[in-house]
Design brief:
disordered C terminus, 13% strand, 7-stranded mixed β-sheet, alpha+beta, 7 strands
Length: 243
């Protein structure tokens, strides 16, 4: 079972690459299944190449519990601070998909354009790192920046990072993958609908709440389909189990 947890987290990284949410960058994490004060996340590596042996364990202070010479992602702090602030969050994904980035640059809000993107109807805040830290390299490279991002996320499922990308949270790893995929797709649909020049009849908050409950109950169907598409790259021997 422990190995299965690692395999699933590695598969999530490869799925999000296959589905166009990640490219050479991006990362996904999950809260440790037996210790709420820890989380699991790949070492710094292109997402398509991640296997179970690349998964590291971190404290919520984002210190590696057993680094073994592996280099962690700089932006692990956005994961740690969100887990600290949101006990309901069990998994987090962060990517830079170009269809989503425009909505962090303009005043037009991201909408829930259809059923599978229902979680967006609750609202999508934008985190502008300049408001707290002035001119930076944009990277969430420390706990203070991670905490500010977690504050901007609030109780929502998605937050945009101005000129950077998107963070998606969910109550399970499978749901985080689902929401990340359909955030990207909904952004494309909204951009396409905007070209038509008419008001967009997006889901309202109540429709979104009801539809999201259905989606969370059936997310396994999408997960199993996507997982079949991304076998692990044949490159590393089996690693150790999580502690």
């Amino acid at each position: 079972m422990e190995r299965e947890v690692l395999e699933d987290l590695a598969a999530a990284s490869r799925i999000l690459t296959d589905q166009g949410v990640f490219d050479a960058a991006g990362h996904v994490s999950m809260r440790h299944p037996r210790d709420v004060e820890r989380f699991l996340m790949s070492r710094s590596l292109a997402p398509a190449l991640v296997t179970a042996d690349d998964i590291m364990e971190f404290s919520l202070d984002c210190e590696a519990c057993d680094a073994r010479g592996r280099t962690p992602f700089i932006e692990r702090f956005l994961h740690g601070e969100i887990y600290r602030k949101r006990p309901d969050v069990m998994a987090i994904a962060h990517g830079h998909c170009p269809s989503v980035i425009p909505f962090g640059l303009v005043a037009t809000p991201m909408r829930a354009t259809y059923h599978n993107a229902a979680f967006l109807a609750a609202g999508v805040p934008v985190f502008d790192i300049r408001d707290r830290f002035g001119a930076t390299d944009i990277v969430i490279s420390g706990s203070e920046k991670g905490a500010a991002l977690a504050e901007a996320l609030g109780d929502k499922s998605v937050v945009l990072l101005r000129a950077h990308g998107v963070v998606v949270v969910a109550p399970s790893l499978q749901a985080a993958v689902f929401r990340a995929v359909f955030t990207e797709i909904s952004a494309r649909v909204q951009l396409q609908a905007a070209v038509l020049g008419a008001p967009i009849a997006a889901l309202d908050a109540e429709e979104g709440r009801k539809a999201d409950a259905i989606n969370l109950a059936t997310v396994g169907r999408s997960w199993e389909l996507w997982k079949r598409r991304v076998p692990p790259p044949p490159r590393l021997r089996r690693g150790r189990h999580i502690s």
